[in-house]
Amino acid sequence: MSSTYTIRLPEKLREKMSKADTNWGEEIRAFIEERVRCLELVEVIEEMRERAERRRLTVDSTSLIREDRER
């Protein structure tokens, strides 16, 4: 199933588009699909970053250095 999405374009842009031998519907669909993939990827990366922050351990490095020197 598909949906229709309508946009307004400046008349000059529409004129320039009509001069190009391009299937604008296909071009716009491909652009939107790629943009959605990028946005989903950013969302996944942010989620992974948040999970990594929660897993991160905080350790006082000075105590580790002292412990190592005492050995």
How would you describe what is shown here?
By secondary structure, this protein is mainly α. The protein has a domain at about 25-70. It contains three helices and no strands. The longest helix has about 30 residues, at about 25-55. It starts with 10 loop residues before the first helix and ends with a helix. The mean pLDDT is about 90.
| Class by SSE composition | mainly alpha
Please report the total strand number as a whole number: 0
Instruction: Tell me the overall shape.
Output: rod-shaped
Mean pLDDT: 91
User: From N to C, what is the helix and strand string?
Assistant: HHH
| Sequence stretches where pLDDT stays below 50 over 5 or more residues | none
Measured as a percent range, the helix fraction is over 70%
Radius of gyration computed on alpha carbons: 26 Å
Distance between the termini: 70 Å
Largest sheet: none
In terms of DSSP E residues, the strand content is under 5%
Number of helices: 3
Briefly, what is this?
This protein has 71 residues and is an all-alpha fold.
Please describe the structure with a list of short key phrases separated by commas or semicolons.
mainly alpha; 3 helices; 71 residues
List the helices and strands and how they pair.
Elements: H1 11-19, H2 24-55, H3 61-70
